Structures are given as structure tokens and as C-alpha cells.
Amino acid sequence: MKLLLLFSIFIASALSHTVLLQPYGKQCFFENLKKNDELIVTFQVGSRNPHNSEQYDIDFYVTSPQGQTVLKKTSLDHGDEHVRATSSGKYKYCFSNERSGRVDLDVSFNIHGVVYVDVNDPKADTLDYAIQRLSQLADEVKAEQGYLVIRERTHRNTAESTNSRVKWWSVFQIFVVAANSIFQIYYLKRFFEVKSVV
Question: If the chain, 198 residues long, is cut into consecutive pieces of 10 residues, what is the mean pLDDT of each piece?
Fold first, then answer.
């Protein structure tokens, strides 16, 4: 049986990008793929506002050169999406914030590609494959670190927001206790006053 299965050679470097999605906005990008190539997009959604502790989500979709939607995912705060090209041409992938008008969103994403190679191709070189594989693994580590940076920023924003609320609640409690103490002293002082009738 002939092995005409795909043999993956990963692109030497992953492309790392960060875009700002405006409220009701959309950002689209294009990749030229050949038949049986694979497009891998990993992304993480965050907010640049340090006082924002919410985790927002976006929509993600991929369109074929013929205009057909190949992949559509909604309400994602992060993702690792794979699309295999069924035909050669320019594929479009979009990040959409069109359903929300509340805040600008920061989307950090990485593009990886898998090139289709015939196993019986005499030009396939195992050393080249090993180098490409090591490069791809290094890029995955880099992408994971980028993901962790955005997660850390989101969690830090949440912690700072919580600390701020606790601080102001404590200040409010101090004023309430002080006002209550002053009222009790005044009331008890009046209670024990000796009134003389003339």
C-alpha cells in the first residue's frame, strides 16, 4: 500500500501579532494556502485597560477563496483553531467584536502553518524536517508564553480591582464606626447631664 499520507513540515517561524478590536469592529487577515496545507491560529483576548477585570470574548471565522465559511466559532476568549485547505488560494480569517460595543479588545494571535508534503517525494530531507520541527516547537513555547503574559495581565487587573474595592469598603467602614462612636458619646453625655429646674 502506497503511503500517500501527508507528512508535516512546519513553517520555520510562527507569526505573532497583536491587534486592537474597536467596539463593533472586525479585523481580517489573509493567508495563501495550497491544497492540503493546514492553517493554525492561536489567540488570546484581553483588555488594555488596567482597571478592567472582566474577560471578554470575540467571534472567529475563516473563509475559503470561494467565499464559503470554513470555520466559525463564537464567544471565545482564547482559541487554538485548525483549518485544512480544501483548495489552493487566499484564505481569510477574521476576529470580530461586532456583537459588543462596550470596550476595545486586545487580541494577541500567532499563525502557524503546516505544509503538505508527499511521503514518496525524494526531496524530503529528514534533517530539514528535524530542524523545522525544533523550530516549530520553539515557536509553540513562545506562543504559550505570550498567552501566559495576557492571562497574567487579566488576572492582575482582576486582583487590583478587587484590592481597590476592599480598600474603599474599609475606608467607608472606618467612617461609619467613627460616626457611630461620636453619636454614642454625644448621646451618653446628654443622657447623664444633670438638668436643674429653676
Answer: 33 58 87 85 80 78 89 83 87 86 80 62 62 82 86 88 93 95 89 71
**Which amino acid, one-letter code, is at 25?**
G
> What is the Cα–Cα distance from 58 to 75, expressed in whole angstroms?
5
- What integer pLDDT is reported at residue 4 of this predicted model? 33
User: How buried is 36 (Cβ within 10 angstroms: 0-12 exposed, 13-18 middle, 19+ buried)?
Assistant: middle
DSSP E strands in 55-154: the ranges are: 58-63, 69-76, 78-84, 89-96, 105-118
Let me know how long the chain is: 198
| All domains of the chain in start order, with CATH | 6-154 (2.60.120.380)
Q: How far apart are CA 38 and CA 93, in angstroms?
A: 13
Measured distance CA(186)–CA(9) in Å, rounded: 83
Query: Which run of H or of E encompasses 158?
Result: helix 126-191
* Rounded to 5°, angle at Cα 165 from 161 and 167: 115
| pLDDT value for 129 | 65
Among candidate residues 83, 76, 82, the one with its CA nearest the CA of residue 44: 76
